[in-house]
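Thought: the user wants the 3D structure for the chain below. I'll pass the sequence to the structure tool as-is, report back what it returns, then summarize two notable features.
Action: structure_tool
Action Input:
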Amino acid sequence: MDAIASLFQESVEFANPEYLAVVPIAGLLLVLGLLVFAVRLQLRPARTEGSRYPLFGHIKFWFLAIGALTLVAIAAARPFWIYGGSSFKRGDVDVVVAIDASASMWVKDLGPSRLELAVREALSLYTQDILTPGDRTAVFVWGTTALRRVHMSSNAERFVEAVGRIGPPPTLSGDAFPWDSDVAMAFESIYLSLDNQDRFEEGEDNWTPEERSDRLVLLFTDGDFLSDAEQMSRMDVALGEFRRRGLVIYPVAIGSRTGANVDSVLTDYVRGVDYDETLEADLEGQRTRLALDNLGGIEQRTGGRTFIVDSPQVTSSAFLRNVVDSHRSISFQLIPAEDQQEIWQWVVMLAIVVFVVAMLIY
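Observation:
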């Protein structure tokens, strides 16, 4: 019954609802008539042989007239019916954007630097309308350490501003951040940060992480990161925590297979001012290239897949749209359409019928 009433409320609207103010007045008149009927019923003399005492008598005209008045008021309010159509609605998603900002991402083997392309692809989540209102994003940047730039939020402007500011530092002196790519630390920071936010939002002391299907991690990197035994051990633990939470990693691999020398990034800086000869010597002979083997292991262990950006003309927007939508839940609901049908004429006809019946039986 409640479902029918709810459907009626959502499907019927009134063009002139001010006329509905008459309905409560009609209700008061109905209550008055019921009180009179009750008093007359109590005062009615006892039935004798051959006598006729109709139960309602002429008061039934009162009740029918009130019904007609109510219908006229409803008709004057100009009711109309809104057609509803069944439709599918996709649920919201949480997207973690993790961008590798280490020095290998600064090389320009594709024309623009790999980091510039990573920023472009990450921003396409909003510039290409892949994410919609209600979706949330978080931003992590990593090198030697991992930094959370934006906590999980539906604030699109904050995301665009934070991602747009990601780039190489103005000077390389005394900055150890870009000279390593500790992806294990990035993974650790991601799931621990999400846990802390979930715990705070739930407000439960005994909160524990749960497996979710509406979250994913987009990893923008060249895959050129350290993979020694210590980091592999930490990565194993972190990816185990990802699987426990249902977090799937989708790497967007950026770079060329031929690669470039790492010391080429120094051409954008001034020797002796922005860096010293020691750094130049350390980077000499080091080469960076697209490391798909490292990314293949990550995607396989979390159930994701990799997209390769090996040219400035290649964009991952279709891939991103597909993987994001794959984590949206789908629900079936009634969506009001724009078609409307006025029904006040039918209410007027019903009011006339009620009034005619009242006159005939009076």
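Final Answer: Structure generated. Residues 2-42+55-85+337-361 form one domain. The CA atoms of residues 17 and 243 lie 55 Å apart.
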